[in-house]
Amino acid sequence: MATLTKAINKNLFDNILPTFGTPRIHIPVWDESQRMFICDEHESASGHRYYCGVRFCDRIVMVEKVGLYHNWTYIDSIELYAFNGTKLELIQKRDYDKTFRNEDFIRTESMQMVKDFLTGIAKTQRTYVFEEQVALHAKSLIDGCYKSFLDPDFNTRLTQILPSLEQR
Questions:
Q1: How far from 48 is each of 63, 77, 142, CA to CA, in Å?
Q2: What are phi and psi for residue 127, nearest 5 degrees?
Q3: Cβ(80)–Cβ(60) below 8 Å
Q4: pTM for the model
Q5: DSSP class of residue 25?
Q6: What is the pLDDT of residues 121-151, one digit of tens each?
Q7: In this structure, which long-range contacts are made by residues 77-85, counting pairs with CB atoms below 8 Å and at least 24 apart in sequence?
Q8: What is the pLDDT of residue 85?
Q9: 159 Cβ contact partners less than 8 Å away, ≥ 6 residues apart
Q10: pLDDT of 88
C-alpha cells in the first residue's frame, strides 16, 4: 500500500496536467463522451482544428479523423484496422467531404464497413454466410468498440494497442 501511495503524488498529476507554460507529456486522452481516445490534435494555419479519435475492442480498431471548422464538426475519414498478431492492418477506409459528424452516422458507416469486409472475406474463401449473421457480428464488434475505458471490467489488448495509439 505504501508503494501505491508513493506512486500517486503531485509529480504524477503535474506531468498529466502541468501548470500553464510547462509542456505536457503527450499521451492519448480518453474522452468519455465520445467513447474514444483523442490522439493527434493539431491546428492548421487557417485556424481549423483536427484530431484523430481511436476506439477499439479485442478484434478491430476504429480511427476517426475529425475536423472542427468554425462552429461545425466534420468527419474527414473512418479507418478500420484488424490485428494480425503483431501489428494492425488496414481493412477498410472511407473518406468524406463536408459531412457533419454524427454518432449514429459513424456507427452505421462503421457497421457497413465491417459487414463489407466480412462478406468479402467469406466470398474469397468460398464460404456462404447468412447476411443476418454477418450483420449481428458486425454490430457486436462495433458495440465492443464503444465500451467505456473507465468501466471496471474493461478487458482488451490495451498493452498491444497503446503503441499504435501513441504512433497516431
A1: 19, 16, 29
A2: -115, 135
A3: yes
A4: 0.78
A5: P
A6: 999 999 998 999 999 999 999 999 998 888 7
A7: 78/106, 78/109, 78/110, 78/113, 80/110, 80/113, 80/114, 80/117, 81/164, 83/59, 83/157, 83/160
A8: 75
A9: none
A10: 84
User: Could you tell me the CA-to-CA distances from 26 to 63, 93, 148 in Å, in that order?
Assistant: 18, 26, 21
Cell of 75: 468527419
CA distance 10 to 79: 38
If one counts every other C-beta atom within 10 angstroms of the C-beta of residue 133, the result is 11
Residue bearing cell 484523430: 52
Which pLDDT belongs to residue 154?
Answer: 65
pLDDT at 5: 44
Q: Give the burial class of 88: count Cβ atoms within 10 A of its Cβ; 0-12 exposed, 13-18 middle, 19 or more buried.
A: buried
Residues making up the chain, counted from first to last? 168
Question: Residue 80: what are its φ and ψ, rounded to 5°?
Answer: -120, 135
Distance of CA 71 to the CA centre of its chain: 23
pLDDT given at position 13 = 61
> Which residues, given as ranges, of the chain have pLDDT below 70?
1-25, 153-168
CB 116 within 8 A of CB 29: no
